[in-house]
Structures are given as C-alpha cells and as structure tokens.
Design a protein that fits this description.
With 256 residues, the chain is an alpha/beta fold. It has eleven helices and eight strands. It has one domain: TIM Barrel. Helix 4 links the parallel strand 3 and strand 4. Helix 5 packs across helix 6, helix 6 packs parallel to helix 8 and helix 7 packs antiparallel against helix 8. The two termini are 18 Å apart.
Length: 256
C-alpha cells in the first residue's frame, strides 16, 4: 500500500519568522499522524532556517511514526543522524541561496565520498535514501553507493503540470511522467525502494501515485498550506485519501 510522508518544515518556517515557540512542529507531527500520515519528514539545513536541532530530537522522542531526516552529506549531519537515529535519512543537495531543494543529488560525481556516508549511516541502523532526478545514470550510481531507497524528484513534472493548465494528458506532462516511470522501473530493478516527492499537491498528485511500484510520496508545502484553512489533520486526511484511491485504481487496472 502506498504511504504518505508529511514534511513539516514550513510549520517551523512560520515559527522562525518570529523566533518564538509556536507553532510547534511536534504538535504538527502528531496532528499529521492522526490524519493518517505514515511518516514525518524534516530537513535539518546547515543554516537552520526552519527546523532546529531540538526539533529533531523532540520528534525522535515524541512521535510514534517513522521519522525521515533530510540532510546534506556533511560530517556534522552524519554525526547528528547517527546520534538521533531516525528510521530513514535522505541525502539531498543543499545550497544556501536556494528557497527549497532545486534538483537531485549528483551521486555519479561523488561516488566514493557518498559510499562512505551511506555506510556510516547504515552502520547506525538507519535506512538510507537519496534524492535524485529522474536520470538513469544517477539511479545506477545510487545502487553503487549502497542506498536502500531512491526518492525521485517530481519538481519538473509538477512545473509542467502547472504550466499546462493542470492537464495531465498534455504532451509535456506525459513526457515527465514517463521519465518518472522509467526511473521507478530502474530503481526497482536495482532492488531499491521507489519513493517520490517535491512540489506535489492536491491537483497533480494522483498520476504520480499511480506509477507502478511506488512506495511513498513525501509532501510538505501543499499540506501545510491547506492546513492553514482546514487544519493539519484534515489536510493530511484529504491527501492520504487522494493517493490511496489513485494507487488502488491503478492496481485494479493492472489486474484486468
């Protein structure tokens, strides 16, 4: 069954705008869990622009669903992950000037260094994921460094969807979906878990949820944005219902 990981970074973004104590990301995580989330994702950035070290510690201690820690492959972050031991750590590229993660990790260009990082995280009992573009060269590199999970960057698909008037059958959208499907097939062929995320929302998520073999979708900004109006629990419930229904319909079609 497809799973939903909810990224709560932007709950912390609101808090950090005033450098205060609310809203509390842990409270958001509990509400997300009650809405049906299967996991919680946070990105502890090197510049600490939203999630803070104490947030990660409290989430590890107080939440009762799996924690996915997005992180740069730095010595500092590896040390934090090995100490806190989230269920999953996802290696992502990180730039100080970017608003959000702008592309997948270039694994192929740094195999040796990343192989060591993956080994150190796995040695601490952490499932290691890598965030990659829908590029078969990067998928092959992910397998070489020992990653257990590949999360495919869905940003290009989401941007095509939005620019084409939310038409899932327009050629640019179909082309981006085909790239995601091809990457997913390669990931599964290499024995890794196929996850996806970035810029997914309530309008564009269903075609991605229907991709063969997809295991988890990680979604944050759209859910937190909707939560402003309906609450976190309801926002998560609505998203979970969308992706489960879409995946179920795809499975029924496959069996016919």
């Amino acid at each position: 069954m497809i799973e939903l990981g909810v990224n709560i970074d932007h709950v912390a973004t609101v808090r950090q705008a005033r450098r205060t104590y609310e809203p509390d990301p842990v409270w958001a995580a509990v509400e997300a869990h009650l809405g049906g989330a299967d996991g919680i994702t946070v990105h502890l950035r090197e510049d600490r622009r939203h999630i803070q070290d104490e947030d990660v510690r409290r989430l590890r201690e107080l939440t009762h669903i799996k924690l996915n820690l997005e992180m740069a492959a730095t010595e500092e972050m590896v040390g934090i992950a090995r100490r806190i031991r989230p269920e999953m750590a996802m290696l992502v590229p990180e730039g100080r000037q970017e608003v959000t993660t702008e592309g997948g990790l270039d694994i192929a260009g740094q195999d040796a260094r990343l192989r060591e990082v993956v080994a150190r995280l796995a040695d601490a009992g952490i499932v290691v994921s890598v965030f990659v573009d829908a590029d078969l060269r990067q998928v092959e590199a992910a397998e070489r460094i020992g990653a257990a999970v590949c999360e495919v960057h869905t940003g290009p698909y989401a941007h095509a969807f939005h620019s084409r008037g939310r038409d899932a059958e327009s050629p640019p959208v179909v082309a981006e979906l085909a790239k995601l499907a091809a990457a997913g097939a390669a990931i599964r062929a290499q024995g890794m878990r196929f996850n996806a995320g970035h810029a997914l929302n309530y309008f564009n998520v269903e075609p991605v949820a229907q991709l063969p073999g997809i295991r988890e979708l990680h979604i944050g900004h759209a859910i937190v944005s909707r939560a402003v109006f309906v609450g976190m629990r309801e926002a998560v419930r609505e998203m979970k219902a969308l992706i489960v229904d879409a995946a179920t319909r795809a499975a029924v079609r496959e069996r016919r």
